[in-house]
Design brief:
Distance between the termini: 24 Å
Number of helices: 13
Order of helices and strands: HEEEEHEHHEEHEEEHEHEHEHEHEEHHH
Shape: globular
Largest sheet: 7 strands, antiparallel
Number of domains: 2
Structural class: alpha+beta
Strand order of the largest sheet: 13-10-12-11-15-16-14
Oligomer: single chain
Number of strands: 16
CATH topology of the largest domain: Vanillyl-alcohol Oxidase, Chain A, domain 3
Strand content: 15-25%
Amino acid sequence: MVPSDEAGVVAVLREASAAGIPVTIAGAGTGLTGARVPLGGWVVSLEKFTRLEIEPGHARAGAGVLLRDLHAAAQSTGQFYPPDPTEAGASLGGTIATNASGSRSFKYGATRRWIERLRVILADGRVMDVARGDAIDFDPGTIPLPNVRKNTAGYLLKPGMDWIDLFTGSEGTLGVVTGAQLRLLPAPQNVLAGVIFFPDDESALDAVDVWRSASEARMLEYFDAPSLSLLRQRFPEVPAAAGAAILFDQELESGDPGEWIARIEASKALVNDSWLAQSAADRERFRRFRHALPELVNDTARRNGTLKMGTDYAVPLLRNREMLAYYRQRLAKDFPGRNAIFGHIGDAHVHVNLFSSPGDAQAATDLMLEFARKAVELGGTVSAEHGLGRRKKHLLKLQYAPEHLEAMQAVKRRLDPRNILGRGVLWD
């Protein structure tokens, strides 16, 4: 079903609710956890919800607007929308459903922070128009949150939260988001970006520990040696001596890069081999460098006939090195030469990508579960930005006690008593 307006969605949901028919909301199909894959019932696409209006400081956009179009429209008016997930073809509705973040999350956080207003249709067809600060008309309870910068595991239930907090990140299980008003910022005039190469991991991690607190970077992204090996397929200029790299991006008030140059020179970086840029064209090249890596990982898996498994775990900043050391130790033992680690190291949120053959797929699955347990043991989360969907919902019970899961399910029952929305997503 492809309704063209809210009245069409209301009609579908009223009929589905009356008959108890499951409804799966389809976005752009870029999610990683299977939330839009239907298990029976009806599929409702919001692809026609593409209204997009840009005003000073704000954007009003339908759920079907693609991120690339939102970014381009904002840029054309001298503004920008801070959330920057890797997949520019994702729909706005999908990014709200998962509270997506991306590489700029180190400074700007995730999607939730930038939503000013939401249009939501509940399972029974009621339409809600909620603004930031609108109080929830029941007590959703409170659950303990991990001490991490990013967490999208389950529902956000905390004191003082509002309707926008609740619906954002609920993975389409509490209501259907049809549109949003978003906060925009003036586009920065001067931005310095760099891909800084290091001879080894420890040198890179030493730099991150300093730069995380000493700078106002928008992003700090990490690449290990296997990641750089993959990137050399498209970027042969990656220095042969590099064993790790950090990509940073920072707005400069004065346009003077001297402070960053001093930081880099004070580190153990391969200074003469590293890349710095202030021009828009070169910064776009660095963005492509970062976003090429997930594509290369997937291409490698397809070409070699292997299965690719990846993590989305994050830990407290002070446990970052411990988690990385654990990853490396276990991967070296069980999957040597068949892994790559990269991602949002500023947030202590890197993605482990593991290549397994059909014969050791179960061992790989078991290792992913072991990593999830370790992240939780260190005070972290089993999902920092992708959500859990259908494929990873089993991880929720690792992070939360039964009474906390029951608090979330009580919210689900209140807003969707017949369990028609996203049946099988998060909950069985």
